[in-house]
Amino acid sequence: MKDSNMLTNILEAIAGNQDLVLTWDIVVTLVIFIGSILYAFNIGPKKIILLILSIYGSLVLLFWFPFLGYITERIEGINPDMVSLIIFSFFVLVVYYAFSGSMLKIRLPKPKRGNGPVWKTALLGISLAGLVTTIVFSQSISFLLGNTSSLIEELFIKDIARFGWSLAPIVVIAISRKGK
Q: Do residues 168 and 157 lie in contact, with contact meaning Cβ atoms separated by under 8 Å?
């Protein structure tokens, strides 16, 4: 699969060479982005960083979880990808609460006033939204294949997009740390 023309495909979809229709996947993406950005401003950059670390940790746990196949086989009536997504969400909650009470909490510097710069919180919220959207779509790919718009495929489902959104929070954290 060649992703070299990803930017061209995105621009064509936005510019109108392909019909950009408000489909269910675009609505889901917009809800995730708006919700993540509002959530980021609500809890602040420090807790967003903990949440991002929890997501990365949960991805590792899900990858190495020895009972995943057993559980997905035993639960009938629910798509195995959805079961994986539910288990992943459970891991995120557990790891987030474990991190929030650990030494990581002490090591992350507290902002001097309020929640820190607005740009930092906004970028963390956007990178979190992209990461969550990519995870949701990549975990659901088996039953979404062919039912998503080309814009969503280019932005969140293709390999290069998944890699970019997985790397985005790390880059944002590095940039925001460097600005101190």
A: no
